[in-house]
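[Automated response] Your request has been received and processed.

Submitted sequence:
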Amino acid sequence: MNELKKILIAEDDKNDVELTLTALEEFNLANVVVVVNDGEEALDYLYCRGKFADRIMGNPAVIFLDIKMPKVTGLEVLKQIKSDDSLKMVPAVILTSSREERDLVEGYKLGANAYVVKPVDFEEFIRAVKQLGLFWAVINEPPPVSSMSI
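Generated structure:
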C-alpha cells in the first residue's frame, strides 16, 4: 500500500478509537492511522500546526469524523475542510452514534462523502470499519496531489 495513504480518525471516545483501530489492524491499515481526540486537533493535523507543525506534509486518504467532539465539532471540521481548496477533495466519512436526521442532512449538506452510524453490536462495528478502511485507504483512488490545490 502507498505509504502516503493515511487515515485520520477524529474521535473523543477512547473505546470507539480502540474498536476502530482493532478493525483496521485486520487489514494491516493500523500502521497508517493518525488519531486525534477533538476537532481542534483534527484541524491542527490537517493544517500542520500546533503539535503537528513538524509533520510531513500531505493529506490523509480519508478522514473519519465523529460529530460530537469537544472544542470543535465534527460538523464544524467538515465545513472548514470542504471550504478549503487544498482539503475539499479529501474524503470525509462521518462515523458517529448520532441517528438524528438533522445531523445526517447537515453532514451531507457540508460535503460528507458518507455517513455511517456506529453499530451498537461489536461485530457489526468491526465489520463496518474494516469495510470503510479497506475502501477509502486501499481501493479508492484519490485525485493526484497536483489537482488537490486547484
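Summary generated for your ticket: The longest strand covers residues 92-96. The radius of gyration is 14 Å.
If you did not submit this request, please reply to this message.
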